[in-house]
Amino acid sequence: MAERQSQVRMMGAVYSKATKVLCWLGPLDERKENAESKAISTIQFLRDFNRSPHFIWGKQEFWLDWTKIATFCRFMDDNSASVINYFGMKSWVANHINHVWETDSTGTAVCTSFVEVLHWARIHHSTDPRDYIYALLSHPRAKVDGSLLIDPNYAITAAQTYTEFALNMIDRTNSLQLLAFVDHPEEPSKLGLPTWVPDWHALNPVAPLRYPTKAAAVIDTYISFNKVGEVKVLKCRGCVIDTVQCISEMIVPRDLTVTTLEKEMLKGIPFLIYHIWDTVVLRDGSPCISLVGFVKSLSLVLSGGYPNVSDSTSGATQEQQKFDFAAFVLDTGISRKDRDLLETMAARGSAQQFIQDMTGTSMCRKVLGTAKGNHIGLGPRIMREGDVCAVIIGAAYPMVLRRYASLYPLVGPALLYGFMNGEAEKLCQNRVIFEQVIEIV
What we know:
Elements: H1 2-17, H2 35-51, E1 56-59, E2 62-65, H3 66-79, H4 81-87, H5 91-101, H6 114-120, H7 131-134, E3 143-144, E4 147-148, H8 158-173, E5 224-228, E6 231-247, H9 261-264, H10 272-281, E7 282-283, E8 286-287, H11 291-303, H12 315-331, H13 339-346, H14 351-362, E9 366-370, E10 376-379, E11 388-392, E12 399-401, E13 410-413, E14 415-416, H15 423-429, E15 436-440
Antiparallel strand pairs: 1-2, 3-4, 5-6, 6-9, 6-11, 6-15, 7-8, 9-10, 10-14, 11-12, 12-13
C-alpha cells in the first residue's frame, strides 16, 4: 500500500517526462474471434498515441484525431443544443473529457479549480472510488501554494477521502466554492457523507452553475468546522432570504424543443413555460409577478445569465435575451391577455437561441418560487416546499438548505433572481435581513 501511494504521487511527473508509454494489455485470448487482429490494432493505436501529441480515438475501422473530435463536440454543444436534445447525441461525453485537460494558448489549464476538474472527470470510471480524486492529482490544479490538496492514502475509506479533501479545500482556500458542486441524487448516498461534501464517484447529471456576478464575497476567513456526535459540521456566516413555496417539475433537455402538438403531449412536461407559470407564478388564481418580471427573471436564471459566453445581466445583451425568451414562451403555446406584449418582444428574438442558452444550466434542475418576496430561482431537483434559500459568505451562489432543528443539511446550490450580485449584504446593512451563523451538517 505504501508503494501504491508513493506511485500515485509521482504519476504527474512520470507521464509528463516520459518519451514513450507502454501499456500491458494482458495475454492474447486465442479463443476470441479475431483476437490477434484486435491486438494488432490496439498495438498500432498505442504506437500512434506515442508518436502524436494528440489523443487518437479508435472506433471500429475509423481513426480520428481527438482534437478534431473535441472541436466538433464543443461546436455542437455551443451552437446546436436543439439538435443534440432532439437526437439524444452524446457529444457531452467528449466535452467532459476535454474539459478536464483543456488548456489555453499559454498552456494554462482552463478549469479554474480542482473541484471543477473533479466534476468533469466524473464521466470516467474507476474500480476504486478513492481514485476519482487520487488519479487526478497529477493535474496542475491539484495543488494550492505548491502542495497537493490531499495526499493519497489508501488506508482510509472513500467517505473519509472525500471528506478530508473537502476539509482541506475549504480550509486552504477560505472559500466555499466546493458547495457549488454538491448534487444529491433522489436516493441518499451509500457513503454517508456530510451534505456539504460532494460524492465524486456519483455520475452528476447537472452542469456546474454559472453566473457573471456573485451572490456574496467568495472568500471568508471565519469559516470553521466542528462535530455534532460523529458528524462533521461546516460553520459559516450568511443570511436566510426566504422559504421555498412552490416548485416546478424537473427540466429535462429533450423536453425543450417544441415540435408538434402530438409530440408535445408525450413529453414529461408538455408546454414547459406554461407549466412553470401555473406552478410557480400563479398564487390563489392570480400571478404573483408581472409578465415582464416573469420574462426578465426566468430568462436570467434558466440561462445562468449568459447567452453563450456573454454577460446578459444588463444592457443590450439582457434585452436580447429577454426577446429570445419571449419567442420561446410563444413557441411553447402559452396564451394569455398579455400575448400582444410577448409577440412584440418575440419579434426581435429567437426561441432556438434561448434553448441553446438554457440547456446546460437548467438541465435536471427545477424552477422555484419563494413565499414572501415572490422571488424566482433555479434550484436542485431534490428541493422541497419549506426548504430555505440562503446567501452564504464564501459561496458565489445562493444555497437551498433544509431546516433540521438548529442545523441545516445542504440541499444544493441555486440561482435566485434579485440575490445574485451582493444584494444580501446591502439588505443586511439596512437591517432588512440579518446575518447569522449557519451550521451545515
